[in-house]
Amino acid sequence: MVVADIVEVDEQPTVWLKREQAAKRYNVSTRTLDKLTREEGFPVYRKGRLVRFPQRACDEWVEARRAPEPRINPPILGLPTNRRRRS
Asked: How far apart are CA 4 and CA 20, in angstroms?
């Protein structure tokens, strides 16, 4: 009897973006996109002159590098302010 490993298969096909589409989606210029692929490791697939960007991998890359939301504390009542009082 042979027991096979159960492997989860990603059911969604990969969506490939052209250079201009990826630049528009991530709100950067095509030159910036090229720089990100060269210097920052932005996901890209190259085959000869063909250049495509896997949308899901690019989304994950952007999300992993997104700055955290700033934490704004509500004002605490009863504490003095920095305003000068008029005499």
From this structure: 43
> What residues have CB less than 8 Å from 42, skipping those under 6 apart?
33, 36, 53, 58, 61
Query: 77 in a domain, yes or no?
Result: no
Tokens representing 46 are 């190259």
Nearest-angstrom CA–CA distance, 28 and 20: 10
| Residue 57 pLDDT level (bands cut at 50, 70, 90) | very high
Residue 43's domain comprises 16-65
Closest CA to 52 of 26, 21, 27: 21
Q: Which tokens in the block code for residue 44?
A: 């890209």
Instruction: Give the chain's domain count.
Output: 1
pLDDT at 62 over 80: yes
